[in-house]
Specification:
Layout (H helix, E strand, L loop, with lengths): L14 H10 L8 E3 L6 E3 L6 E10 L11 H18 L3 E11 L5 H15 L5 E9 L5 E10 L15 E5 L4 H10 L8 H12 L5 H10 L5 E3 L4 H12 L2 E5 L7 H10 L3 H7 L6 E5 L4 H8 L6 E8 L5 E6 L2 E4 L13
Parallel strand pairs: 4-5, 9-12
Antiparallel strand pairs: 1-2, 2-3, 3-6, 4-6, 7-10, 7-11, 8-10, 9-11, 12-13
Length: 346
């Protein structure tokens, strides 16, 4: 081989395959590490009264956002929510935020200020402080990385690995709204929708909610077995719970919670709204399990909270895999159709 020439290598083909390879290289963490790679956040045993949660997300222009269809305030807001939602999935309380940003020559100072304004607007309800970060130039495209810390009581964090056969599966809120909103933004010809429905879907995409209060309530009541936030989509994020817990799952198609706006969008597009709910990402709702023995108590207490919880299925044996129930006696394999980086069309 000529000097200076490297061997030709294959491109990365699977986001989660790459994560598993990297996890295998970090199998000997410090004793303070309670949970490392493989969950919504890392967990560090930092004191006897509270443990530290740490999460980070990178957003790249043309991959995660498009300044042509989203304001800089909205981009910043959604970036912060992505991290806040990770803390919510653990049942934690968010605390401190660091922001690293690479700025292309096409961005102005005023636009970056708007970006930060959106981030701080999302963080403000939780008294999160911006405590540092880094700035860099970018030759092409805007890159934004947020690191967020939080706290949770020792051994109380909700993990992806806590699901057991017989558990019931629940979600917060409604599903598919963000995907429908994104489709509206990208459409050259928008379907005929009531203005209120269009505004709702666009708002659910640009300004999603982090279910911090719901996650904290689940931890306080000790009712959930496992949890994850829905960032990549229901099918993909459910797969993470099943893999970490070594179980299968059955989803009831007609139980999926759908907003009137998402139903109207699907009807106008002649689509199945349930498929949008299964595939769409960035709803940032919580998917969690409730052990069978705690379900009656969960239903009783949940009815007093004002939170919107929906039972959408159950945890089954691992050998059964992921299944979708479409009728009383009809089930079929549930394909994982959520977004995954690096996948190329076959």
């Amino acid at each position: 081989m000529p000097p200076g020439r490297s061997r030709r290598t294959s491109p990365v083909s699977s986001e989660f395959g790459l994560i598993r390879l990297l996890e295998a290289q970090t199998r000997h963490p410090d004793r303070q590490v309670y949970k490392g790679i493989g969950d919504d956040t890392a967990i560090l045993k930092t004191s006897s009264t509270e443990w530290t949660l740490i999460t980070t997300d990178l957003l790249a222009e043309a991959v995660h956002f498009d300044p042509a269809t989203s304001s800089f305030e909205d981009i910043g807001y959604r970036a912060a929510i992505a991290n806040l939602s990770d803390i919510a999935a653990m049942g934690g309380t968010p605390r401190f935020m660091l922001v690293a940003i690479a700025i292309p020559p096409t961005c102005s100072t005023a636009q970056i200020q708007r970006l930060y304004r959106g981030m701080m607007e999302a963080a403000a309800p939780y008294q999160v402080s911006l405590v540092g970060g880094d700035t860099s130039a970018s030759k092409q495209g805007l890159f934004l990385s947020i690191t967020l810390t939080g706290v949770v009581q020792p051994s109380q964090a909700l993990l992806r690995s806590g699901a057991r056969v017989g558990d019931r599966l629940y979600v917060t809120g409604t599903l598919g709204d963000s995907q429908a909103g994104l489709d509206l933004l990208r459409s050259r010809r928008r379907p005929a929708l009531r203005p209120a429905h269009a505004r709702f879907l666009l708002a659910r995409h640009h300004r999603p909610s982090a279910r911090i209060a719901e996650g904290q309530w689940l931890v306080k009541q000790r009712l959930a077995g496992a949890a994850i936030d829905l960032s990549d989509g229901l099918t993909g994020d459910l797969r993470h719970i099943c893999e970490e817990s070594a179980v299968g799952a059955e989803i009831i198609a007609d139980a999926l919670p759908l907003s009137p706006a998402c139903r109207a969008y699907a009807a106008a597009r002649r689509l199945d709204a349930r498929q949008i709910a299964l595939q769409g990402g960035e709803d940032y709702e919580l998917l969690f399990t409730v052990p069978r023995g705690k379900q009656a108590r969960f239903e009783r207490l949940a009815g007093k909270t004002g939170f919107h919880f929906t039972c959408i299925g159950s945890i089954t044996a691992k050998r059964l895999g992921l299944r979708l129930r479409t009728g009383t006696d009809t089930t079929q394999p549930l394909p994982v159709t959520s977004y995954e980086h690096f996948l190329r069309p076959s």
